[in-house]
Amino acid sequence: MYKKLCSQCYQPSFSSSKSNQWICPVCSKDLTSHKAIQAVHAVKKIPLSAYQPNMGTGYEFDRKG
Q1: Which domain of life does the protein's organism represent (predicted)?
Q2: 51 falls within a domain
């Protein structure tokens, strides 16, 4: 995976090929002549508990008023 930084909107753009035509997906600037760098993938470990919603006791919805 390759990455280029747009010189017009300063947003990163990613591609699997560095040799084809490259258009910025944000501002449509032609980035073909810009230098591509290897994209770095960082994996952040998130505990499973962060994905589980707070279920409560179930009685919160039985109250009226």
Answers
A1: Bacteria
A2: no
Edge-to-edge strand list for the sheet holding 37-38 = 12-15, 2-5, 37-38
CA distance 31 to 23: 5
pLDDT tens-digit map of 15-57: 998 889 999 999 999 999 999 999 987 778 877 777 766 666 5
Prediction pTM value: 0.59
24 in any annotated domain: yes
Which whole-number Å values give the CA distances from 20 to 8, 17, 40, 51, in the listed order? 20, 6, 20, 39
- Residues 36/2, Cβ–Cβ less than 8 Å: yes
**Domains: count for the chain:** 1
In a domain, 1, yes or no: yes
